[in-house]
Design goal:
54% helix, Rossmann fold, 216 residues, 2 domains, alpha/beta, Arc Repressor Mutant, subunit A, six-stranded parallel sheet, single chain
Length: 216
């Protein structure tokens, strides 16, 4: 099944370039374009994309606000930020409103495609230099909170699954390593997120770093 993609950027030349870049991929279908947040919000329910490729600097409202509204109205749609902004303020705000990826416009085409495919699979993709900000933020939280090493009631199996999830493995890969079914992995994942009150892959990675389950 193809990934249905909605391009949101206020520059026509950027959208044309993205069409040329992504249109030739066998697993990607560009279903529409929008030059403003308003157009994107109108297009989302009509076109039902899997992914919205979102610029942050839009003329009518920010891409952060637009992402927040899309995720509120259509939580099944993933959003990947594609932006010139690489500072902490925009990066963390996009994660907070539910973005599944954050890629700077200077990134290589392969990085953008990786982000789109990861988001389509329900994962979170962060450009390497920006992912370091996330690690830095979590380590700072760890020092500030003096969090204990306990794992908040997780079973041994759940701890195993948590480690693989935080390392970026998907359900099928974890199932193969632990010799259990993907459905069982999914159930463990739901239990982990519920017990720890986590809501995203980014939250899970932060927790795993803070607890020393994975290395930064």
């Amino acid at each position: 099944m193809k990934i249905r993609l909605l391009l949101v950027d206020d520059h026509q030349v950027v959208r044309s370039g993205l069409r040329m870049l992504l249109g030739g991929e066998s697993d990607v279908e560009i279903v529409g374009e929008a030059g403003t947040a308003k157009e994107a919000l109108e297009a989302a329910p009509k076109l039902r994309p899997n992914i919205v490729l979102m610029d942050i600097g839009l003329p009518d409202m920010s891409g952060i606000e637009a992402t927040s509204e899309i995720k509120r109205l259509y939580p099944e749609i993933a959003v990947v930020a594609l932006t010139i902004h690489e500072d902490e303020e925009y990066f963390f705000k996009m994660l907070e409103v539910g973005a599944n990826g954050y890629v700077p416009k200077r990134a290589a085409p392969e990085e953008l495609l990786t982000a789109i495919r990861a988001a389509a699979a329900g994962e979170v993709y962060l450009y390497p230099s920006l992912a370091k900000l996330l690690v830095k933020d979590f380590l700072a939280q760890e020092r500030a909170s003096g969090d204990a090493a306990g794992l908040d009631g997780l079973t041994d199996r759940e701890q195993e699954v948590l480690k693989y999830l935080a390392d970026g493995a998907n359900n099928d890969e974890i199932a193969e390593v632990l010799v259990i079914s993907p459905k069982t992995v999914a159930r463990h994942r739901e239990n982990i997120m519920s017990k720890l009150n986590l809501h995203s892959r980014a939250d899970l990675v932060r927790y795993a770093i803070r607890k020393g389950i994975i290395e930064p």
